[in-house]
Design a protein that fits this description.
- With 301 residues, this protein is α+β, with helices and mostly antiparallel strands.
- 21% of the residues lie in helices and 26% in strands.
- It contains 7 helices and 14 strands.
- Strand 13 and strand 14 form a beta hairpin.
- Helix 1 crosses helix 2.
- The longest helix is centred in the middle third of the chain and has 12 residues.
Length: 301
Amino acid sequence: MPVPDGLDGQRVDAALAKMLGFSRTFAADIAEAGGVRLDGATLGKSDRLHGGGWLEVEWQAKEGPRVVPIAVPDLGIVYDDDEIVVVDKPTGVAAHPSLGWEGPTVVGALAASGFRVSTSGAPERKGIVHRLDVGTSGLMVVAKTESAYTALKRAFKERTVEKIYHAVVQGHPDPLAGTIDAPIGRHPSHSWKFAVVPDGKPSVTHYETLEAFRGASLLEIHLETGRTHQIRVHMAAHRHPCVGDPLYGADPTLSARLGLTRQWLHAHQLAFHHPATGDWVQFESAYPADFRHALDVLRGE
């Protein structure tokens, strides 16, 4: 795989964590075992990558992921009743455990706080009906009962859940509001990321410009479908990647100017029919501190 230009000069362990979703500890273990090569040369965990170099990574698969109760002080509990819990997920937290990820998870944080969730789903994904990327902050709903799990999974499948994201992207989309209808699947040559491909799954993203800045725009985005990395892929395919997202071509200079170390992408609103009462419920999440700072810089310019 080629090293994205946005990761030029970064340490091996930090870069692998961003590219492949590993923890830095796991990435460092791979490097120390001789599993990281750049243009044929073996690298250590603290060696630096250069953009465009050919990176090869080999590791020994571990046992299946398991839930480890780890408290996440910044995990906000937005709403909680007998059926569901709505959380405000901070960056750096995965939805659930996965191979190579040893950091905190929503599932583990809820377990550490004594929450009982649905037993439906894979053992490491109990109660999880949808996900956010590790680097994406904002709202998630988790099922606490089997009936809530079934109802919410059906609602996501039937697209009756309203998901609204806010994103800061490079440049100014033309038109300022529109719809991107383009299928998404695995990248044909880089399997660790996704792309618009002819045989991909149907994917529809609606966007509207809220503010325009020098070299960037704040968008409100409605997802009609929920593919992995959908917003990041669609915006990058239209030459407007999320600021702070080197995996999909973000300008590292702009990211550094705004003090961002992750993609500016936030699950701002979530609304759905309550699985027990049928009432329409809606929740909203404020921007985290690093996103507010980036907006202050842009507005000041």
